[in-house]
TrEMBL record:
Keyword Transmembrane set for record: yes
Membrane topology label: Multi-pass membrane protein
InterPro entries: UbiA_prenyltransferase (IPR000537), UbiA_sf (IPR044878)
Alphabetic keyword roster: Membrane, Transmembrane, Transmembrane helix, Ubiquinone
Domain of life (superkingdom): Bacteria
TM segment ranges: 90-123, 135-156, 162-179, 200-221, 227-247, 259-277
Alphabetized Pfam families for the sequence: UbiA (PF01040)
Species for this entry: Occultella glacieicola
Principal subcellular localisation of the protein: membrane
Keyword Electron transport recorded: no
Lineage of source species: Bacteria, Bacillati, Actinomycetota, Actinomycetes, Micrococcales
Subcellular location(s) per record: Membrane
Protein name from the UniProt record: Ubiquinone biosynthesis protein UbiA
């Protein structure tokens, strides 16, 4: 394998490709769902992608010392496929691109997205090891629908229920994603909210928050999202996925499945948001 290929694969892994892809695709679907033109949807998607790349790369750059301390061989820096310096450079370049692309959607909308990205960076830099570790997730996820609507529908914003639902999704994703690494994190001094309430508490908190997010999405719009049977089926699926995340996290302590299931819940909920687009957009 050539050095270029190894580096490219390392950068891809360090970008946290799963979360990056999910959030970016959801933003694109959200933009199209609220009636954005193709060009506007592409611009919004690229802005979100650049922001997500900056967050993912900065996370692995900032956490490189902790990852080495616990021999996280799955991390590119520890595996030697990328250097800390390279991650720092690409993270800052992605952040610069995010600033340009975000402001290209409009000053107000761009400021909202940059606030969301800044919130995510605050987690990497400071809040990850505090009881407020959940706050950046709530803020960043909650601002996403506001950004997309402001960027795609001039003079409008997102309905409050949509903001609440996405904020709850962010918190649930944070708690579930932390579960497989609780022990490694503790050994390196990370003491976020999930670490403080423990594995049992976090295993219950994640599905409960995700269930609440689903309820908000299903019941929030003034117009029902579909026939009662359809809504019930979707809600039941989401509840099963969320509950499974908690069970698996308790039984298989190193499993990544809780986070994958959380992202599945996010996909289902955003599909519902897109289908409820007329109720989601609130004129200023």
């Amino acid at each position: 394998m050539s050095s270029w290929t190894r580096t490219a694969r390392g950068l891809r892994s360090a970008s946290h490709p799963g979360p990056t892809a999910v959030v970016t695709v959801l933003a694109a679907a959200f933009a199209l769902g609220v009636g954005a033109s193709a060009s506007r949807a592409v611009l919004v998607t690229l802005a979100v992608l650049a922001g997500q790349l900056s967050v993912g790369w900065s996370n692995d750059w900032i956490d490189a010392g902790r990852d080495a301390a616990v021999a996280r061989g799955d991390k590119p820096v520890v595996a030697g496929t990328v250097s800390i310096g390279l991650l720092r450079r690409v993270a800052l370049l992605a952040l610069a691109a995010c600033v340009v692309l975000s402001l290209a959607t409009g000053w107000a909308a761009g400021a909202v997205h940059l606030a969301a990205v800044a919130s995510a960076w605050s987690y990497n830099l400071v809040l990850k090891s505090t009881p407020l570790s959940w706050v950046p997730y709530a803020v960043s996820f909650g601002l996403l629908p506001i950004f997309v609507v402001m960027a795609c529908v001039p003079g409008a914003s997102a309905a409050p229920w949509a903001v609440i639902a996405t904020a709850l999704l962010g918190v649930g994703a944070h708690v579930a994603n932390t579960l497989p690494d609780l022990e490694d994190d503790r050994r390196t001094g990370v003491r976020g909210l999930p670490h403080r309430i423990g594995r049992a508490g976090s295993s219950l908190l994640a599905p409960l928050v995700l269930m609440l997010a689903t309820v908000v999405v299903v019941l929030g719009p003034d117009r029902p999202p579909g026939p009662g049977a359809w809504a019930g089926t979707v809600a039941a699926l989401v509840l099963v996925l969320a509950a499974s995340a908690g069970v698996v996290a308790r039984i298989r302590t190193r499993s990544r499945l809780p986070f994958a299931l959380s992202m599945a819940v996010a996909v289902v909920c955003v599909v519902l948001l897109v289908m409820a687009a007329p109720e989601l957009v609130v004129p200023a």
